[in-house]
Request: fold
Amino acid sequence: MNACPYPTRLRDSLPVPDARAADAARSRQRRLTKPAGSLGALEGLAVRIAALQARERPSAQRVHVTVFAADHGVAVEGVSAFPQSVTAQMIDNFAAGGAAIAVLARELGARLEVVDLGTVSPRVRREPGVIVRHLGPGTANLAREAAMSASQLAQALCAGAEAAHRAAEQRADLFVGGEMGIANTTAATALACALLDLPASAVAGPGTGLDAAGVARKTAVIDRALALHGACADDPLDTLRRLGGFEIAALAGAYIACAQRRIPSVVDGFIASVAALCALRISPLLSPWLICSHRSAEPGHSAVLRALDAQPLLDLGLRLGEGSGAALAIPLLRAACALHSQMATFDEAGVATA
Amino acid sequence: MNACPYPTRLRDSLPVPDARAADAARSRQRRLTKPAGSLGALEGLAVRIAALQARERPSAQRVHVTVFAADHGVAVEGVSAFPQSVTAQMIDNFAAGGAAIAVLARELGARLEVVDLGTVSPRVRREPGVIVRHLGPGTANLAREAAMSASQLAQALCAGAEAAHRAAEQRADLFVGGEMGIANTTAATALACALLDLPASAVAGPGTGLDAAGVARKTAVIDRALALHGACADDPLDTLRRLGGFEIAALAGAYIACAQRRIPSVVDGFIASVAALCALRISPLLSPWLICSHRSAEPGHSAVLRALDAQPLLDLGLRLGEGSGAALAIPLLRAACALHSQMATFDEAGVATA
Reply:
């Protein structure tokens, strides 16, 4: 595998939101035919996307959706309700159009790309159209050793940057990143604990559907991993390497690389939010480029959202991942942009003001 | 104006949700390629709409949007931040496509119809395409006399039933009702107080943007009206006649008439929810046919949602009305139906179960 030039650019400075576009958008909002503030969160969203896209009238039409999938060595510790073979099977299901994110991408008129970063089982059906970037048959078991080598981490970040590059080539207004990987709430929980200095018991949850005994086992596995790898929050890249997953690192790389190209990312649930938190620790000016879509049913998500200083748009008890919650929020972003751009002003409509 | 035959049918029995379709939908949900329950509220929504539409795979594609507009005599008490001329001006703005609900209906690919039930000021621009059902130049001042005559109430309910009839003719999957009328949060608040036996201070809020002194004045006006008309919650039609508005009565009539035609209604914010509560008191089996879309910023909305036993989908600080919040929830209903109908099952995709 060739070396990826991207990781050295991770700490490059990011563009800042455009204050002039924000002012123009704010002024336009005040002139639209509605009581000031009556569109609630949608008004601030329109202004925010205007600032990010550096234009008075922003757009959320062109959405680039990438799902990164990979297996996790820690699955052998019995931390998931599903067998590890499901990761490869779901990659085929994404590509064939039967998975939730595939249905939602179609509804949005968005192209879905699937990046296979390495699974334990081979893909039996071998659906075409999957971008293959195998970094190994999943990560190593983070409860016993570092999940990734330095080279694997670099390649995973690079796979994310490549997706950002494709999004930019397609002139995407927004990027949605999804993830799939049996046992990846364990990796994400370990990362959240390390970055937020919390014990596993404060963050761990049922993931895809563990019972209480399963959550207790998962919690113990994560505490063991945290003890093994030590507190390392001061070095977010090394934390990501030791406790993360290929798909989590790819998401982090994609968020940063999208921001470098002025593309806001719509962040999905617990695992994607942990990837966003890793990315934010790597690139501290990333925050405005992350639009958090929803509050997951996974209990640890709230702590991660607080750390991201995020007010998610939806709270529907979702806990699927794949980017599905982010995709579900896209119509709200589109509506915010359409209302902002298409509503008549008081002058245009001949409507009296308050 | 001709007599409307509809009001006598208001207490006709309603169809009940189809238990067999609900069972089939529930069984299908369990077979879809996702952890059970991981789509949160969307799973129950899909099953609910399946039961209402009496088919295993429900649809939210065809949406009929009707905005009812009318003026309110109580506006002379200084209970709104906007002048009364705005009602007629906004009717033109709906018809011309510049209002929020017009933009949202376009985004949804839904036809928007506007029903003018009577305004104080004439429409200056006279945009075509408005359905005119003038019941008078607005209601009488509910702080001094009954808002409507019995005949006006019947005609308003009938205007709602006509909209339901048009929705059924167009084979709508869902009905969205909106309202517009300067001072109509005052009428809706008075209705909520009468139906829920609450003082005005427990429900009244800023509406389109009153300051604290304005809210205090509005509260006093509503308390005066409640004292004048007496407790009358046992007769919801008479309560609606005394304290309501043409557009509020039309919405109530539309919700009931839609349910009679097996069309679920997506209920907007505070005023629409009060209309829904009136309708529920008139027709006690209406409840399953009302899908509450969002929690409004208007403080009294929470009490009304509790009375409707509703878990709204969105909580975005909206307080515009026009049906805008209901329209914003439609993509979630569409997504719930699309996921339910289009996702692959574990068998179809060859994915292992937990």
